[in-house]
What does this fold into?
Amino acid sequence: MSLIGLNICVVGGGIGGLTAAIALARRGASVEVLEQAPVISEVGAGIQVSPNGMCVLAALGVADDIQARSVQAEAVELRDYRASRLVTRLNLGLLDATQKYFFLHRADLIDSLTQGAKAAGVTVHVGQKAVAVQAGHPASVTLENGDKRTADLVVCADGLHSIGRGALNGTLAPYFTRQVAWRAIVPNTIDHPNVARVHMGPKRHVVTYPLRDGSGVNLVAVEEKGAWGEESWATQDDPANMLAAFEDFCDPVKHLMRGAQAVGKWGLFKHPVALKWSDQGVVLLGDAAHPTLPFMAQGAVMAIEDAWVLAASLDRTDDLAAGLAAYQERRFERVSKIVETASKNAWRYHLSFPPLRFAAHSVMRFGGAVAPSKMMGQFDWIYRHDVTAD
Ligand SMILES: Cc1cc2nc3c(=O)[nH]c(=O)nc-3n(C[C@H](O)[C@H](O)[C@H](O)COP(=O)(O)OP(=O)(O)OC[C@H]3O[C@@H](n4cnc5c(N)ncnc54)[C@H](O)[C@@H]3O)c2cc1C
It folds into this structure.
């Protein structure tokens, strides 16, 4: 189906929505993005974009700008929490030269995508909160201010609390995963190398990696909690609370934590992968369809892959419904497997029974020492997957 002249309304100007807007507009669709926030922005935090996301961004013509704002990652290191002893190292240098893995500030990624969307002819409207979507021909979006937009296709890239997901799959509230995350960007006081470090402790882990010119470090500290008592799913917290929760962690981690001026605290909520991704001109994308725990650093990258596959699937058929069905078909198994792998990492990172932790770490340490490429190869199905080549 040619996308030329197709009217598409994207609800949500996050990473998924903007990437989808670029992908669809570059194939000829007339695209507008409706974002509820007063400005297109992101939380003050970092993000890892692995090669399977970068190949889409390259195909969409925005990778150079993103790369110029990023730190190229050399490795992912798993370390023990107390002595920072290396458990295993995924050497990202073992990937092909064209496969690059980056760390960047979310605001930089969003800015590059916004510029890319505008260059592709997309209109971006801010301060436009959608309150309902209606499947049909045309499909429609009702805004909080009472306005109504109609379109051949409404792409709901509106995240965890998606109204599109509710319309297509029922309005169950997301469930608390028993994980909370503190996030901060802190001064790089430890000369952090260009690696993502995961310090693994009982029921907790901390991820750190450098950003921009290396003067700042992105810090995510995750702890298992029985309940999320806050009213909102995201709140500000006193950095002292984060430090207290990780006071038995090694000095480099605590040193970084002490530099935090402000920390955000998130309850990590989730839905199962949606069973129904589309209906008569309404389709889900990114977290709206498949929210995940962040423990594989793949949530946004999956949304980026979705964006390409959605546009390509529509381009390949003459029928909108068939194109939307092909999109879900091409994505469902892969995203389900990634979501499941991320959930298993919660268990792997947070082992609290010392003999079990010792055994598991020994296996990883041995595997990484004798067969580093095999260790890295376990992730080929994620990192080497190129949806633009399908
Ligand atoms: C601690 C943490 C670390 C993470 N690290 C990584 C990482 O390193 N790599 C990675 O790939 N992923 C990571 N993720 C996951 C990633 O952040 C999400 O998967 C990704 O942001 C999903 O993108 P999205 O565009 O689908 O949804 P969102 O980012 O949620 O964007 C949705 C957009 O829609 C807007 N919106 C919502 N409702 C409406 C409405 N009704 N009307 C209009 N607009 C609306 C929102 O304002 C927002 O701009 C991490 C997540 C967490 C919590």
Summary: The domain at 7-67+103-172+271-345 is CATH 3.50.50.60 (FAD/NAD(P)-binding domain). The radius of gyration is 21 Å. Residues 11-17, 34-37, 47-48, 129-130, 157-159, 163, 181, 183, 220, 266, 286-288, 294, 297-301, 303 surround flavin-adenine dinucleotide (CB under 6 Å). The longest helix spans residues 320-349.
